[in-house]
Amino acid sequence: MKNNLKPKGLAMSMIFEAESANYGEGVGNVASLKKLTRDKGEQYTYISRQAIRYNISEQLGEELATVKAEGSGEKKVIQFSEEATIRDYPEIDFFGYLKTAKNTGGKKRTAKVRLSNAISLETFKGDLDFLTNKGLADRIDENMNIAQSEIHRSYYRYTIVMDLDQIGVDEVYSIELDDEEKIRRVNKLLDTIAFLYRDIRGRREDFKPLFAIGGVYNIKNPIFENVLDVKDNRLVVKQIEGVMFDSIKEDTSCGLIEGKFSNDNEIKEKLNALTMPEFFNGLKSKVKDYYEGK
């Protein structure tokens, strides 16, 4: 890491469209979506950051870190192995680790890539899917089983913030990777996010962004996390413009997949939207410049 450079963070907020992508505890024979309640009782479904992290790790195309069960009986804890370090495993380089050991404080690394929950931008109306196994039951002339599952299709938004100056650096194990490897890992992560998906209940839900905004900044703040919104199928551009301070404006770009939002022309005119490949390639270029000290 080059000490003469200011610390940098890559912050990016995105909107994607998906259906029924994260379930919680069921109630009776009803599978319940994960939800939160706001204001006057409106419910919004969400996809947990843990679920998104799992999908990113799974689709990163890198070897997953080795784990072990520590402790005994009911107190067993599954954690990363002692020999699993950031040198070999980008997963724990990005998302951190906690390794406990008896009679010690253990070893820990905080996440250098932080995710928010993906929260729906449209309210949940209580829709239910009626499920049976009639096809199988009919084969043996048995009564079918009946279940219900909550369903919700919506736009979702989530944010990712990367601590660029700490990726590839672990003081606990005295490891620092070379700049080329840091660039490779961040680029691989960006490629994964650009085509992210989630397998759930026989479906493959597409999480690739329809709109994305962000950049590489001297601050590590999730700048656009609370201002991305969609009303009447229109991206609310005014809210985004409201946080476009002079200190970040020059470093910010956005990507748009045309044809989903009703105000594509406004987005392109006021936010200078790029195509999604151009947006991600621009981020990769900024990451490369940072690590190479340009």
TrEMBL record:
Keyword Cell wall biogenesis/degradation assigned: no
Keywords from the named record: Antiviral defense
Pfam families in the cross-refs: DevR
Domain of life: Bacteria
UniProt xrefs under InterPro entries: Cas7/Cst2/DevR_sub_I-B/Tneap, CRISPR-assoc_Cas7/Cst2/DevR
Main function: CRISPR (clustered regularly interspaced short palindromic repeat) is an adaptive immune system that provides protection against mobile genetic elements (viruses, transposable elements and conjugative plasmids). CRISPR clusters contain spacers, sequences complementary to antecedent mobile elements, and target invading nucleic acids. CRISPR clusters are transcribed and processed into CRISPR RNA (crRNA).
Protein name in UniProt: Type I-B CRISPR-associated protein Cas7/Cst2/DevR
Source organism: Tissierella simiarum
Organism phylogeny: Bacteria, Bacillati, Bacillota, Tissierellia, Tissierellales
Gene: cas7i
